[in-house]
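Worked example 2:
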Amino acid sequence: MLPSALPLPPRRTPVPEVLMDYPIPSALDLHRIFNRLLIRRANLAAQLFQSPMEDLAPLGAEQSIYFSEPLAGLLVLRSSENFDSFLQGESLGSLLELTVLFHHQLFKEVWRLDTRKTKAALFKRSIPLQWPDRRFNTGCTLFVKDFPLEIRLWAPVTEEEMEKWRKSKT
């Protein structure tokens, strides 16, 4: 007769690290998120335009935000100087303020993250020479009243692309 087999203890294997997938929002997602923010903040609506701004007009007001969580990325909002003046004249803040608010909303809606709990983002006034030397991953062109506004997102960005942005001056 064979001795009764004792059950083996459960095997302890390390749980594989699960990498969370962070989707890159589409142009329509960017428009939807920005439009909701603009409606709540200023009772204005943004119209989506299907052409890049290079084809239309130079844009002299630009703000950018570099973030490192959940992935490294660069968010740029740019418009005309007149749009920034319009925002300030209507007591709606500034393009910088709108960029920061959009950054918070983008994280909340796309990646379900609270920016207060992520690493601090860096922001500054920027120019196109500071952008990564490649096409953005997603972006859209909008019109708010008669003012053009462009949103560009590079994600992920490399350490070299980040250093170029960080070291450049406007």
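Helices lie at 27-42, 81-89, 95-110, 159-167. Strands lie at 46-49, 61-67, 73-79, 122-125, 138-144, 147-154.
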